[in-house]
Every structure is written in C-alpha cells, then in structure tokens.
Write a structure and sequence with these properties.
This protein is an alpha/beta fold and 166 residues long. It is built from five helices and four strands; from the N terminus they run αβαβαβαβα. Helices cover 32% and strands 11% of the residues.
Length: 166
Amino acid sequence: MVVSPIQSRERVQGQSPCRSPEAAPLGRSFDMESKLILAFHVAPQKLGKIRFCAMKMGMRVMDVPLADCGQTLGALCGKAERQTDAAAQENAVGSEMLYFAFSELPLVERFLTAMKQMRVPPVRLKGVMTETNLAWTPAQLYQELTREHQAMAGHGAPIHAAKQEE
C-alpha cells in the first residue's frame, strides 16, 4: 500500500486525513488531540484565511452557528454535555470573536503571529479556555471580552476596581 506524505504525517499525528470540523455532525465531538478554535460572526472570506492558518499549525476552526449559541463553550468544544433544551440566543455575539479551546498561551501567540504574517485582518475579541469560562455561553464570553477590551482601551471603568482606603 502506498501512503502519501500527507496521510503518513496525519497517521503519525493521530488524525484522519479526511476529518474536518465541517464533516462532523453537531453533537459529536472531534478528535480532541488537535487544537480547536471556535469562530463566531467571522465573514466567510476571513474565516477561510483563519482556517488555512490553523490547518498549517495542526489546528481546526469551527464556525459556530447561531443555533448553537445557547450551548456552553464546554459543550461546543466537546468537553461537556450538550444541552438538548438550550435555545439559540438572538444577537448572542455582536461582532467577530475567536475562542481558543485550549490553554497553551505560547501556541495562541504563535497562531496570532502567523495570522499577522499571512495578513489576515485581526479579530478584536479573543478568549482562551479556562476552567471558569467553559461553563459560559458565547454571549457571556462576548460580554466579558467586550468589558475587558473597553477597559484596556480606556473607554470604561476598570474591571477590577481597587479597594478604597477610608
């Protein structure tokens, strides 16, 4: 049997050569060995560039449809049970947002650097998986990231107000 270099590399990495996030039906988890990035409200052309960048780094990108925005982030990335009664949240995420369903910050930084080198326009709101935010919905993450972004840009009150001495 002749094995192509791509098939060989993917077998070594434990990935199926034909497996993609789009190929798996909703409700089924993906191969958790690879890193997953959840994308919300990203335009198709930009999403294609992000997917290409992710593929080069052995990551996968899942475009989360509005119908799944009632699920928790943990359920969306396959780390928790999906809720059968979770309702889609209208306007859950108001602008582009990426959620890195892993917590290795150096890997996130390398991915963002690769996006910049490939001239992919930046995504303003980005979150990284934590024990706390796995239980959040995309809307909750969006609100938190928006608050943090506004505070860092000087457009709002500090997130963590210092205690005033009396």
